[in-house]
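Sequence only, no structure available. Ideas?
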Amino acid sequence: MKLRRFLDDIAPHFEKGRRLEAFFPVYEAIDTALYTPATVTAHASHVRDGLNLKRIMMTVWLCAFIPAFAGAYFAGLHANEAMQALGQTSVDNWRYLILDPLTNYNPASIWDCVVHGFAYYFPLYIVIFASGILFEAWFASVRGHEINEGFFVTSILFTLTLPAGTPLWMAALGIIFGVVIGKEVFGGTGKNFLNPALTGRAFLYFAYPAQMSGDSVWIAVDGFTRVTPLGNAALGQDYGVTWMQAFIGNIPGSFGETSTLAILIAAVILIATRIASWRIMLGCVVGLGSIVLLFNAVDSTNPMFSMPLEWHLVLGGFAFGTVFMATDPVSAAMTNNGRLVYGMLIGVMCGLIRVVNPAFPEGMMLAILFGNLFAPLIDHFVVQSNIKRRKARA
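Reply:
I predicted one. Tokens follow.
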């Protein structure tokens, strides 16, 4: 193929001692993204599984498009409903150049909703990917290590944690913070103890709380506001939706968190391919369920104490965080028993933050970051316990 020959022809310019040596990680990243590397081990490598980093990351990346598609559709649906309520016939920003020839902004049309939703999703994703990969390439060139497919996952997961109304400059700032502070300062992929996507999202939440959690950010139409069902629950008001609507995803929220159904489909694929740990997912559900049932038995004026478990499971970022964020193999616990404990810790912390702290009725993002900090300690105690048990049998 012409592309293969072209890459082979320019390869010598990136070798050690040549003038483009500093850009070898960029060349290598493009080459391995397009083609399977021809390099093989010279001796027995003792690998008994065809699952490698590239397959893992690309599978997670593809699975993330399932909630992304659902989130984009519902973001477009809510935007079209808002435009209909306000009497608008077209968007009043730069997106009209693309959107107006393609859609009539009809909330009853699946096509119109998907197109309008992706008009907000794709610009965010492109800006996030371009900004993040620039800093990944910079650090890789300075350190002389390769750029792997891990950023594909980080970029899409970070995009899915954002609401549709997020300014593009803010999204770029968040992913740069996540890549640099959450990963590269610790040595890059495989050495970070915090999830980079959540690190960037946490930075944006605390730096720009109004833009990340305000009523106007969920429906990306000027002059239209709507509170999330979880926000209504914290205020002691009606959720505003049925449980089935929340489960399917017809609620305002960040792109990736709205449709629990889409997230479950992705979870089945990730578990079946043994890429994500079912123990971590189970631990999260058990941990959240335990603390929520305990709170339900307490008589309190705080309305979140009486919120049923089935609603906790479908509202906010719990499902998305459980499937895609908590199961990050780098920042999560490594041992089997440790994964259960790690997941339970995240579930309990999510319930505590949601219920006890009325000013922050979400909790999953901070719970996972908290779990990341304790993952090495959990694994340490599990390993020491196994050693003691084996010594006792010896």
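Residues 277-394 form one domain.
Hope that gets you unstuck.
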